[in-house]
Amino acid sequence: MPTLPIGDFNQIKHAFDKFGGTTRIKGWDTFSQWKMEIALLNIPFVGSKFAWSNNQFQGELIFERLDHPYSTPNWLDAFNGSYLFNFPILCSDHGLVMLHVESRHHLRGTPYKLEV
User: Fold this and answer.
1) Is residue 30 part of a domain?
2) Pair 1, 60: CB distance under 8 Å
3) Phi first, then psi: what are they for 52, rounded to 5°?
4) Is residue 88 predicted with pLDDT exceeding 60?
5) pTM, two decimal places
6) Least enclosed by CB within 10 Å: which of 46, 64, 87, 115?
């Protein structure tokens, strides 16, 4: 069944998904195991690299990429032009994320038909 789990998993995947704070990635191995067990693939993103901040402007500022879209292989095959757009963090500790879904099987219809 084509599946698309998307959300704030509160888990970074790599050290480069984080700026500031500790470099230890707690729970990474469990999270990676879970993704492998159910064969989830990453959907690419564009826009801001980080979608969460601790908003600690007086202390140690931390940014992380916590919002991720994943898909099953058959979903990604059907919608292989899809991507997540990360907006900048403006008025919350999270930035808005938007999933752009583009079907590989997009059919173009003609607006009219001429009969001769």
Assistant:
1) yes
2) no
3) -145, 145
4) yes
5) 0.73
6) 115
Question: Look-up: residue for tokens 């938007």?
Answer: 98
Query: In the numeric block, which tokens belong to residue 67?
Result: 């919002």
* Residues near 112 by beta carbon (within 8 Å), at least 6 away in sequence: none
Read off the pLDDT band of 12 (50, 70, 90).
Answer: confident
Task: Report if residue 53 sits inside a domain.
Answer: yes
pLDDT computed for residue 22 by the predictor: 82
Note whether 99 and 64 are within 8 A (CB): no
Local structure of residue 94 (DSSP, 8 states): B
Q: Would you say residue 12 lies in a domain?
A: yes
Report the SS3 class of residue 103.
coil
Rounded Cα distance between 50 and 34, Å, is 23
Work out how many domains the chain is built from and give that number: 1
Q: Which domain holds residue 60?
A: 6-100
Pairing of strands 18-19, 63-64: antiparallel
The separation between CA 10 and the C-alpha centre of its own chain, rounded to angstroms, equals: 12
pLDDT per residue over 20-66, tens digit each? 988 778 888 898 898 899 899 989 999 999 989 998 878 899 999 88
